[in-house]
Amino acid sequence: MTEIDAKTDALIPAWLTLPDIAEQLDVEVTRVRQLVREGQVIAVRRGENRVLQVPAAFIGEGKVVRGLAGTLTLLRDDGFTDEEMLEWLFTPDDSLPGTPAQALRENRGTEVKRRAQALAV
After folding, report:
1. Distance in angstroms (rounded) separating the CA atoms of residues 34 and 60
2. Range 33-50 average pLDDT
Protein backbone atom coordinates (compact mmCIF):
# COMPACT_ATOMS: atom_id res chain seq x y z
CA MET A 1 0.00 0.00 0.00
CA THR A 2 1.03 3.53 -0.69
CA GLU A 3 2.32 6.35 1.45
CA ILE A 4 1.22 9.76 0.21
CA ASP A 5 2.56 13.22 0.84
CA ALA A 6 0.70 16.14 2.41
CA LYS A 7 0.08 17.79 -0.98
CA THR A 8 -1.80 14.76 -2.31
CA ASP A 9 -3.58 14.26 1.00
CA ALA A 10 -4.77 17.88 0.87
CA LEU A 11 -6.35 17.34 -2.58
CA ILE A 12 -8.63 14.59 -1.30
CA PRO A 13 -11.45 15.96 0.86
CA ALA A 14 -12.76 12.75 2.46
CA TRP A 15 -11.51 9.25 3.20
CA LEU A 16 -13.12 5.98 4.22
CA THR A 17 -11.61 3.06 6.12
CA LEU A 18 -11.93 -0.43 4.66
CA PRO A 19 -14.64 -1.42 7.22
CA ASP A 20 -16.60 1.75 6.26
CA ILE A 21 -16.42 0.76 2.60
CA ALA A 22 -17.43 -2.82 3.38
CA GLU A 23 -20.51 -1.45 5.14
CA GLN A 24 -21.40 0.87 2.23
CA LEU A 25 -20.92 -1.90 -0.33
CA ASP A 26 -22.62 -4.46 1.92
CA VAL A 27 -19.69 -6.88 1.61
CA GLU A 28 -17.08 -8.38 3.93
CA VAL A 29 -13.88 -6.41 4.62
CA THR A 30 -11.96 -9.24 2.91
CA ARG A 31 -13.78 -8.34 -0.34
CA VAL A 32 -12.70 -4.70 0.02
CA ARG A 33 -9.11 -5.86 0.57
CA GLN A 34 -9.45 -7.90 -2.62
CA LEU A 35 -10.60 -4.79 -4.54
CA VAL A 36 -7.46 -3.01 -3.29
CA ARG A 37 -5.21 -5.95 -4.25
CA GLU A 38 -6.80 -6.14 -7.70
CA GLY A 39 -6.16 -2.43 -8.24
CA GLN A 40 -9.83 -1.52 -8.54
CA VAL A 41 -9.41 1.10 -5.81
CA ILE A 42 -6.36 2.74 -4.26
CA ALA A 43 -5.82 2.45 -0.51
CA VAL A 44 -3.22 4.42 1.43
CA ARG A 45 -2.03 4.38 5.01
CA ARG A 46 -3.07 7.58 6.76
CA GLY A 47 -3.28 9.12 10.17
CA GLU A 48 -1.58 8.41 13.44
CA ASN A 49 -2.42 4.70 13.36
CA ARG A 50 -1.52 4.29 9.67
CA VAL A 51 -4.97 2.90 8.94
CA LEU A 52 -5.67 1.85 5.35
CA GLN A 53 -8.06 4.34 3.78
CA VAL A 54 -9.60 4.91 0.36
CA PRO A 55 -10.80 8.27 -1.04
CA ALA A 56 -14.53 8.52 -0.30
CA ALA A 57 -15.10 9.75 -3.87
CA PHE A 58 -14.32 6.23 -5.13
CA ILE A 59 -17.51 4.83 -3.56
CA GLY A 60 -20.99 5.91 -4.55
CA GLU A 61 -24.50 4.49 -4.35
CA GLY A 62 -23.39 1.24 -2.77
CA LYS A 63 -20.67 0.43 -5.29
CA VAL A 64 -17.25 1.40 -6.58
CA VAL A 65 -17.67 4.36 -8.93
CA ARG A 66 -18.21 3.20 -12.50
CA GLY A 67 -15.15 3.62 -14.70
CA LEU A 68 -12.69 3.94 -11.83
CA ALA A 69 -11.06 0.52 -12.24
CA GLY A 70 -10.55 1.05 -15.98
CA THR A 71 -9.10 4.51 -15.42
CA LEU A 72 -6.70 3.18 -12.77
CA THR A 73 -5.61 0.43 -15.16
CA LEU A 74 -4.90 2.99 -17.91
CA LEU A 75 -2.89 5.18 -15.56
CA ARG A 76 -1.00 2.19 -14.14
CA ASP A 77 -0.18 1.06 -17.68
CA ASP A 78 1.17 4.58 -18.31
CA GLY A 79 3.60 4.03 -15.41
CA PHE A 80 1.79 6.13 -12.80
CA THR A 81 2.39 5.33 -9.14
CA ASP A 82 -0.60 5.17 -6.78
CA GLU A 83 0.28 8.64 -5.49
CA GLU A 84 0.51 10.08 -9.01
CA MET A 85 -2.85 8.51 -9.87
CA LEU A 86 -4.47 10.05 -6.79
CA GLU A 87 -2.95 13.43 -7.59
CA TRP A 88 -4.19 13.27 -11.19
CA LEU A 89 -7.68 12.10 -10.18
CA PHE A 90 -8.13 14.85 -7.59
CA THR A 91 -6.48 17.82 -9.35
CA PRO A 92 -9.05 20.18 -10.88
CA ASP A 93 -9.11 20.20 -14.68
CA ASP A 94 -10.88 23.25 -16.15
CA SER A 95 -11.54 21.41 -19.40
CA LEU A 96 -13.60 18.71 -17.63
CA PRO A 97 -14.72 20.81 -15.51
CA GLY A 98 -13.92 19.69 -11.98
CA THR A 99 -11.60 16.83 -11.12
CA PRO A 100 -11.39 13.51 -12.96
CA ALA A 101 -12.71 11.85 -9.77
CA GLN A 102 -15.79 14.13 -9.85
CA ALA A 103 -16.31 13.40 -13.53
CA LEU A 104 -16.26 9.65 -12.84
CA ARG A 105 -18.85 10.10 -10.08
CA GLU A 106 -21.00 12.08 -12.53
CA ASN A 107 -20.82 9.23 -15.07
CA ARG A 108 -18.47 11.13 -17.40
CA GLY A 109 -15.97 8.28 -17.46
CA THR A 110 -15.45 8.29 -21.21
CA GLU A 111 -13.97 11.79 -21.06
CA VAL A 112 -11.77 10.85 -18.08
CA LYS A 113 -10.45 7.76 -19.85
CA ARG A 114 -9.75 9.80 -22.99
CA ARG A 115 -7.60 12.17 -20.92
CA ALA A 116 -5.86 9.26 -19.18
CA GLN A 117 -5.03 7.68 -22.54
CA ALA A 118 -3.69 11.02 -23.83
CA LEU A 119 -1.19 11.06 -20.95
CA ALA A 120 0.52 8.01 -22.42
CA VAL A 121 1.40 9.79 -25.67
Report:
1. 18
2. 93
